[in-house]
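Quick question, first post here. What does this chain look like in 3D?
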Amino acid sequence: MDSLPAMPDRQPPPPAPEVFETRRLVLRACTEDDAGFLADLYSDREVARFIGGDRLTADSASTQAQKFAAVWRAHGYGQSILVEKSSGEQIGRVGLHPWPEWDELELGWVLARRSQGRGLAQEAAQAWLAWASAVRPAPYLTAVIHPDNHASIRLAERLSFTFCAPT
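> Answer (accepted):
Ran it through. Tokens below.
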């Protein structure tokens, strides 16, 4: 899992901090040990329906956690597990993921249903955007969002993403 290709023709950025803190959140690098949390997060069909649905099983969550950890090792950034400061609960994931086959760097987010609608995904995404703005790991970021995921579309708009239709 450690042999992910680098983004083409770019100098690697300085690594992101493995722990970000915002007013309400701690964002820490996703590791292989987060497979159980990811499986639990994805077990809610309402959470998983726009990001893979029934394909998000315990086995695929384990594979995904390994991939996320490998991205951190290979690129110095990746997906963060969100921990709510007030409760110490893990509530989702937010971070950057390279897609070398498309030459894209995606900012993605997934929150547990109980944590949605409180601005937490926006707070975490803004921490990643601040880092990306400072170090420029790619010329731009993308957010791949299912067209029926209206809440994520609204968040992308609040984060100043510009809509581009698939080609």
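Confidence is low (pLDDT under 50) at residues 1-7.
Strands lie at 19-21, 25-29, 79-84, 90-99, 104-111.
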